[in-house]
Amino acid sequence: MTVKQWITGTVALGLGLIAYGTLANAATATNPFDSGYYQATKTFKTHLYGTAQNITIPKGTIVQARTGMRTSKVGQDYQVGEMDLLNLNYSLRKTWPRANAGGVANMSAFNKSSLKAVAAPKYMPIQQLTASYTTGAVITRKMSQNWSKDAWLTVTTDGYVAHFAALKKANTRSQRKPDSVAKVTKTKRSGSTLSLYYRHHVKGVPDKQVAKTGKAQYRLTIVTKKEMTTNGDGSSLVNYINFKIGGKNYYTFYNMPN
Question: Of 15, 129, 153, 251, which is the most exposed, with the fewest CB atoms less than 10 Å away?
Fold first, then answer.
């Protein structure tokens, strides 16, 4: 299988492998070919898969990225990698080109020279990544791979809580405007419990009003369960990380089907 075929299949699935996200303090990644959180050290352009155009990543932007895939070209090994851009705030993504037919447009080439490994932002529910694509970026009420039927929420890598309605077409998810979004203004973490605070209610998200004024009027409580949740069997077996959010079960992909 060529790198191009591998990437195409992976983007179509919109899934990825990830190590279980502990709630301990994350250490800064030290291996430049590990997957994890990276920050742009300068503004740069990179190709957006599923389109014929480049996009701009501003300096300081934090993204999830996967590297370390090796293959051979003209008898020599070389390094390739990708950034997962689905959990960037919509204000950055709204001017990006739309996907071609069958494209997803939520991943791009990994520009190692323009990104540095950083610790996970304290507001991210998943702290440690080893081979992530959309894991953690798409959190749903159902254990389902059917993106066209499920509403979802995300905590963006640039610090927003956003909720999205169910889609009619799966390949439009990356360009979708959120129904509601709020900037995280305060974060608390205690054991497996993460509390995110923001100014106003996010429609579709089970947050709770805890104050009547100020920047921390609403609180979203995310509890990460210790055990994986498995759905399906054989070739359709998929593992999920199980969250309790506002007391309700939510799930995010842990791995691709076997």
Answer: 15
